[in-house]
Amino acid sequence: MRKYELMYIIRTDVEQEVVQSTVEKFQGIITNGGGEISKHDLMGKRRLAYEIKKFRDGHYVLVHFNAEPAVVTELDRVLKISDEVIRHLIVNDVA
């Protein structure tokens, strides 16, 4: 398994329950695929550096996890089609 870092931003116009269910959905993809989450941080609502899809703020979520590349591919696919997520980035965590 490899180490990865995932950062994604959830829209601010959704309910808090939707934010929580979205976070749980992505945690489930990682753990159901055989990965393990080492750190999960819901950083809260923050101002974006620039406007994305007409949004100025977003709920930031940072996840450090270990998984196989197939899990990361599936996670990336689901993040791309999720309406709640306005931006995401998955990188190898070499540190």
UniProtKB/TrEMBL annotation:
Belongs to the bacterial ribosomal protein bS6 family. The keyword Zinc-finger does not apply. One of its GO terms (biological process) is translation. The keyword RNA-binding applies. Binds together with bS18 to 16S ribosomal RNA. It comes from Paenibacillus pectinilyticus. This is Small ribosomal subunit protein bS6. The lineage of its organism: Bacteria, Bacillati, Bacillota, Bacilli, Bacillales. GO terms for molecular function: small ribosomal subunit rRNA binding; structural constituent of ribosome. GO terms for cellular component: cytoplasm; ribonucleoprotein complex; ribosome.
